[in-house]
Amino acid sequence: MPDTQALVNEFIAKLKKRKIEGSHATAKCTADLLRSVISQHRVPHTNQAASLIEAVKVVGEQLIAANPVELAVGNIVRRVLHIIREEDLSLATTGIADLTVSIGSDDEDDVGGCRQGLVLSAAAVAAASRSTLRAPSLQTLLEDIPDSAARGNTCSSGGESEGKSKSDKNSKSRKLKHDVIEAINELILDINTCHEQIADQAVEHIHQNEVILTLGRSRTVMEFLCAAKEKKRSFRVFVAEGAPRYQGHVLAKELAAKGLQTTVITDSAVFAMISRVNMVIVGAHAIMANGGVIAPVGLNMVALAAQRHAVPFVVVAGSHKLCPLYPHNPEVLLNDMKSPSDLIDFGEFSDCLDYQVGSGHTSLHVVNPAFDYVPPKLVSLFITDTGGHNPSYMYRLIADYYSADDLVLQR
User: Fold this and answer.
1) H-helix or E-strand containing 196?
2) Cα gap 87→123, rounded to integer Å
3) In what order do the strands lie in the sheet with 286-287?
4) Residue 280 — φ and ψ, nearest 5°?
5) pTM of the entire structure?
6) Which of 1, 43, 126, 165 has the fewest beta carbons under 10 Å from its own?
7) Residue 150 pLDDT level (bands cut at 50, 70, 90)
8) Cα(402)–Cα(134) distance, integer angstroms
9) What is the pLDDT of residues 245-267, one digit of tens each?
10) Which one, of 279, 266, 156, lies nearest residue 211 by Cα?
11) CB neighbours of 190 closer than 8 A, spacing ≥ 6?
12) 74 and 65 in contact (C-beta within 8 Å)?
């Protein structure tokens, strides 16, 4: 296999040069790279999980620094760290359970108390896993096991147990890597199939003779609408062009080619047309921990118009876009300033862009932001590959996918 550092450097160069853009492609490439890093990492006999976590964090910091705007990179790095912690705790719990079974096969009278202590220890490990891998809540506090039960009754089985622990070190390290790689394979499969899983829910949300509005182009939205069309739903789609990149023109051509009734409108006409619309369906760049959405520029305007006319504002996005950070976190860059050439031609305004004598600044500034922030109060529903969820429930999904210890990746 190729050298790991060479793969990392190649991916970092692509991120810096914007050769890989979009949450889906970025998430898949990041997961593939981290799988290679873990498979080639030499795990020591002790602290196997800590060694894997350290290796992933080292690579993850480099990837995030290469292009902080692509939040999917940090999402996948934190997902992989959570997977390592989960698999390590699963192996620890399984080891205690196996030891309990082996002791239970001996004399019941001699080792009854010892076995009871081991059972309590296994319960303590399970409780510790819940409190460690999930964000603090009242439920985790109620599930905690007392310290006395967590310590359990100590017992020793002599040199036989010591010999087993030494002989099982190599097999445990191999088992941990194998389980982590298998879990990452499942994560990559989920990323690859997220569009199909979201599209399968289209018939539940799009009904006959409805009018749907969207802005720009999103592959998830396109497949979602096409899936409803395949289910014999008849509806119309208004596509706002999404200036200045005009990705809405591309989406309109794709929908028209699939036989959908499509109407292209300008972004400034959204408020005028929203009263005729039954639902707004859009994609997202990232879903934040508070239920807010970082989306292509212009969507906040659409969300405000939808709220004014009581039109449902639905966001479709894969679970790899769930970000455990909040919009005010310093690690989150809400905007990426694109080239001014998307807005104006440099040759036509070259005289305005020249420095004024004695002023020290230009007379014309061009700002071309890439993203908008839509607060959670403007979102009606999230549709992910795990189903439909309210904005107030997103924190629970994030608690299942990420560990509280990995929110800040600084080592």
Assistant:
1) helix 159-199
2) 16
3) 286-287, 293-296, 371-374
4) -110, 125
5) 0.82
6) 1
7) very low
8) 7
9) 899 999 999 999 999 999 999 99
10) 279
11) 318, 319, 320, 385
12) no
Report the length, in residues, of the chain.
Answer: 411
| Residues in contact with 333: Cβ distance below 8 Å, sequence separation at least 6, in sequence order | 68, 69
Name the most confidently modeled range: 1-5, 165-169, 175-179, 355-359.
Answer: 175-179
What are 20's two structure tokens? 């890989």
Is residue 164 predicted with pLDDT exceeding 90?
Answer: no
8 A C-beta contact, residue 307 and residue 251? no
In the DSSP assignment, the letter for residue 353 is H
What 8-state DSSP symbol labels residue 44?
-
3-state secondary structure 313-375: EEEECCHHHECCCCCCCCCCCCCCECCHHHCCCCCCCHHHHCECCCCCCECCCCCCECEEEEC
CA 139, CA 133: separation in Å to the nearest integer?
13
**In one letter, which amino acid is 210?**
E
| Two structure tokens written together for 74 | 């940090």
CB atoms near residue 122 (< 10 Å): 19
Q: What angle do CA 264, 266, 272 make, to 5 degrees?
A: 100
Given a contact cutoff of 8 angstroms between Cβ atoms, the answer to whether 319 and 401 are in contact is yes
pLDDT per residue as tens digits for the range 106-129: 555 554 555 555 444 555 555 555
Which two three-digit tokens encode residue 168? Answer: 């099982």
Return the residue matching tokens 């989920």.
Answer: 190
Chain Cα centroid distance, residue 108: 49
Q: Across the chain, what does the average pLDDT equal?
A: 83
Q: Which residues contact 227 (CB under 8 A, 6 or more apart)?
A: 199, 200, 202, 203
- The number of beta carbons lying within 10 Å of the beta carbon of residue 195 is 21
In this structure, the strands spanning 381-384 and 313-316 are parallel
Tokens 């499969």 sit at which residue?
189
**CB burial class (10 A; 0-12, 13-18, 19+) of residue 91?**
middle
Return the amino acid letter for 93: T
Q: To the nearest 10°, the Cα dihedral for 304, 307, 308, 312?
A: 130
Three-state SS across 224-247?
HHHHHHHCCCCCEEEEECCCCCCH
Query: How far is residue 287's CA from residue 373's CA, in Å, rounded to a whole number?
Result: 10
What are the backbone dihedrals phi and psi of residue 362, each rounded to the nearest 5 degrees, phi first? -85, 160
**Cα–Cα dist 63/29, whole Å:** 11
